[in-house]
Amino acid sequence: MNNENQDTGVAPADTDTQKVPAYSWYALGVLVVIYILNFVDRNIMSILAEDIKADLGIGDDDLGFLYGTAFGVFYALFGIPLGKLADSWHRIRLMTIGLALWSAMTALSGFAKSFTALSFARIGVGVGEATASPAAYSLISDWFPKRMRATALAIYSSGLYLGGGISLFIGGLIVERWNSIYPGGGPMGLAGWQAAFLAVGFPGLLLAMLVITLKEPVRGQADGIISEPVRDPFRGFLNELFAVIPPFTFIQAAQHGAKAFLVNVVGAAVIAGTAYGLILITGNIPQWIALGVGYYAVFSWATSLRRRDPPTFALIWGSPAFLCTILGYGMVAFASYAVTFWASPYAIRVLGESPSIVGWWIGGPGAVGGFLGVIAGGRVADYLRERHPSGRLLVVMFGVVAPVIPLIVAFTTSSSLLFYFLNFLISLFASSALGAAAATSQDLVLPRMRGTATATFFLATTLVGLALGPYLAGQVSTATGSLSTGVLSLLIAAPIGMILLVAAYRLVPRAEETVIERAKDAGEVFAA
Fold first, then answer.
1. Alpha helix segments (H runs only) across 221-354
2. What is the pLDDT of residue 15?
């Protein structure tokens, strides 16, 4: 191994004998810390939900919007151009900027005095966090060879569960003690939930100073397909940005002719009409406007990508194997995000537990269960892949079906102890699928497309899972007066997920074998 590879932590070409450089493990550890903070900032709203609801005078559907849609739509939307930037620019710098942004916006949430102000702050958190995983997935895929990729991605993904658990513990502790010391509001009139946002936001600004010291690896060397540096990386970023942000989407479509413009307008009209119908049914304007904008942005971007980068379109949107994989995992996220958010309010509201107790008994076991599940799932996924190209998808299928019975019992029991234990099992089972699904999606594209592929993967987890799951549970809860009914209504995701994953299992082997062939057919040029 040469010195350059050792300095930057680049994985050797994928063999059974080469060891992963020590620097790769160090860098992965830093990424895990970033992801922990990512989910502390994202998930702390769960334990603060009851206080936010009381202070701002909002309903369960509005809470679902704040946690899921306001964050998730813009996380997904900006993940597209930022994923492109991760494929063409310095990924370490991108992560540093994003970390500073989302940390500042989390702290700003602590000064929100209205539903609208908190919504905009959550949007800012979503935009900042959209930098993290496209850059991280791409970096990890260069720091680790293919045979270790699901394990490495699973270790990184453990930050999701550790951060989610830590957020509940910290949030519950802060809000309860703050409100006890300052029952009428503390300095600057801040309530406990506002102080909690401030407490978890500021540390990210300090962490950014460590992140910027990481070394950028050689892109694609782990797979023996080294990508040449992009001369003007921000041109591609701006092209992607204009492809997803209205009204620039109409301008860009018009530049490609009358037919492209007409397709774009018709797509916008169909999505707008659907959103309007859902507004009439539910009465929730912000939810369906935001989601409508999100789905239109994805439609506009996908049609634009087909014209601008046919090889990337062919391996992502033109690949049934890729789409079935990410949408199948999206059904895991659909139920998992809802349970993650609503478990704490359910324990406080229905079981009568205090925030600090809930933070400890949901946050702690949930973090442990998620950590164990995602690590074990990643290892099992890599083991199964050695025996069958689609072996990893068996782990994703397990993540769809295994949580069903624990979820049903958890949200119908009156026992707090049983509720906490079953939440541990749900976290353990559902988390097992993430590393397997992420690694499968990375294996189905070229190295230069990994950031874009990751952004597309997270479209499924956010626009299907995060933006719909928590909100729909809240909407059903508001309509029925039962939070239990709201969460249980999401079990419809299980059969849908299994159908998609069975299809993916059959399609992935051929799709992985023909990655280079299909890219060449679409116009990709490889260096001699």
1. 233-244, 248-255, 258-282, 285-308, 310-315, 320-349
2. 47
Cα(278)–Cα(286) distance, rounded to whole angstroms?
A: 11
- CB-CB contact of 335 with 430 (8 Å): yes
CA–CA dist 250, 285 (Å, integer): 23
Q: How far is the C-alpha of 136 from the C-alpha of 434, rounded, in Å?
A: 15
Distance CA(5)–CA(183), nearest Å, equals 57
- Letter for the amino acid at 449? M
Lowest mean pLDDT across 60-74, 139-153, 354-368, 496-510: 139-153
In sequence order, what are the residues at sequence separation of 6 or more whose Cβ sits closer than 8 angstroms to the Cβ of residue 56?
114, 115, 118
Q: What is the distance between the alpha carbons of residues 363 and 379, in angstroms, rounded to a whole number?
A: 24
Identify the CA nearest to 469 among candidates 389, 407, 396: 407
Q: What is the chain's mean pLDDT, rounded?
A: 89
Contacts of residue 382, defined as CB under 8 A and 6 or more positions apart, other chains included, come to 147, 148, 149, 150, 151, 392, 439
The one-letter amino acid code at 116 reads T
Q: Chain centroid to CA 228: how far?
A: 28
- Could you tell me how far CA 25 lies from the centroid of its own chain? 22
Cβ 193 vs Cβ 176: under 8 Å: no
The 10s digit of each residue's pLDDT in 395-404 is 999 999 999 9
As given in the structure block, the two tokens for residue 200 are 């978890």
Whether the pLDDT of residue 76 is over 90: the answer is: no
Is-cis flag, bond preceding 21, omega within 30?
no
- What the block records as the tokens of 83 is 């994923």
Distances (CA, A) of 487 to 47, 263, 336, 343: 17, 37, 10, 9
Q: What share of the chain is helix, strand, coil (3-state, %, to 5)?
A: 80, 0, 20
| Complete DSSP assignment for 143-184 | HS-GGGHHHHHHHHHHHHHHHHHHHHHHHHHHHHHHHHH-TT
Neighbours of 56 (CB within 10 A): 18
Token pair recorded at residue 276? 């309007």
**DSSP secondary structure string, 225-258?**
-PPPPPS-HHHHHHHHHHHHSTTHHHHHHHHT-H
Q: pLDDT tens across 24-59, in order?
A: 999 999 999 999 999 899 899 999 999 999 999 998
Return the structure tokens found at 523.
């116009």
